[in-house]
Amino acid sequence: MNNHRLADQTGTVIIGGGLSGLALADILATAGEDFVVLEARDRFGGRILTQQFGAGGFDMGPAWFWDGQPRIARMIERFGLSVFEQFYDGTLTFEDQARQVHRERGFASMRGSYRLDNGLAALIHALVAALPPERLHLQSQVTAVSRENERCRVTLASGDSIVADHVVFALPPRLAATLTFTPPLPIAATNAMSNIATWMAGQAKALAVYDTPFWREAGFSGDAHSRVGPMVEVHDASPADHGPYALFGFIGVPPQGRKDEALLREHLKRQFERLFGPKAADPNELFVKDWAFDPHTSTQADLEPLFAHPTYGLPDAMQNLWAGALHFSGTEVAPQFGGYIEGALEAAENTAATLLSEKVDS
Questions:
Q1: Does domain 1-48+122-198+310-362 fall into CATH 3.50.50.60?
Q2: Tens of pLDDT along 307-326?
Q3: Which CATH architecture has domain 53-119+202-296?
Q4: How sure is the predictor about 261, in pLDDT bands with cuts at 50, 70 and 90?
Q5: Contact at 8 Å (CB) between 220 and 265?
Q6: Would you say residue 286 has pLDDT above 80?
Q7: Domain boundaries, the chain
Q8: Confidence band for 361, pLDDT divided at 50, 70 and 90
Q9: What is the pLDDT of residue 249?
């Protein structure tokens, strides 16, 4: 998609090609608006990252959605994507501080959670395929945004630049705060951006892939909680009705304590074995994705762990910047579903409504 030359100007530059940025682009395309999406990575999806292994697609970022989230439901229906309920049948495993493993029946921690067959990347691929390819640019890292004659110039690390009427930051606000703004944004705005914790940024996920779902055959749901670690929470990550099968876990060790990946992998295998027996110690593959050290997701401030779900939304200080030329999208600014996949779509919808209403008013 970088075979297309970056245009000299456009109506709206969307910085960030994750779910929110692509969903916003989709709405603007439907409305006949001119836009460009600039994504720093060599792939679209942002924190949606699906690891392919054999016939399975396994989410290393967000994975679940729930009833009562209408936007993701509409997207799934529109693109004809296959949905299945998270596996939860069987015994839950609990590891106490003394490394004693306990089994508990009758408690399904993930009942009512849903996933996409082949992972959430299926939604990203569908959105990308629906958009004009000449508007989508990978490996296009933005470094600066400047105000010029009532328009905005967006400058890339390559030295290329594009002029637009509006700029949308469809990336974590903390990352947006690291860009160079000319003239500088008000201190209240940069402080607000820096104070919004990036959802999942400090997280790491481990995924162990196997030929058979031996834990299911032994009566386990795949759900586990541990006070020992390195994983604090484990779930079944298998596809809907076929192999390969998998378990995944959220790693609770702080980012600075998991830099030695080889050592971490050994501890992960031992913990899988403690929780689910000897067969779990030898996966076909063990994948680890540490979001804390992904420069397109996390900042230094995100290395501090989150102990509760933040209250998200768009602060007043981040609104009406540069006479309304700057906008924010992404799950962190969604007032109702912030932090969720639904929140990324909610933010895109809200931003699109603002942009299109300004178009009508003008």
A1: yes
A2: 789 999 999 999 999 999 99
A3: Alpha-Beta Complex (3.90)
A4: very high
A5: no
A6: yes
A7: 1-48+122-198+310-362, 53-119+202-296
A8: low
A9: 98
Q: What's the pLDDT tens digit per position in 234-244?
A: 999 999 988 89
Per the confidence metrics, is the pTM higher than 0.85?
Answer: yes
Question: Which residues face 249 on adjacent strands?
Answer: 206, 234
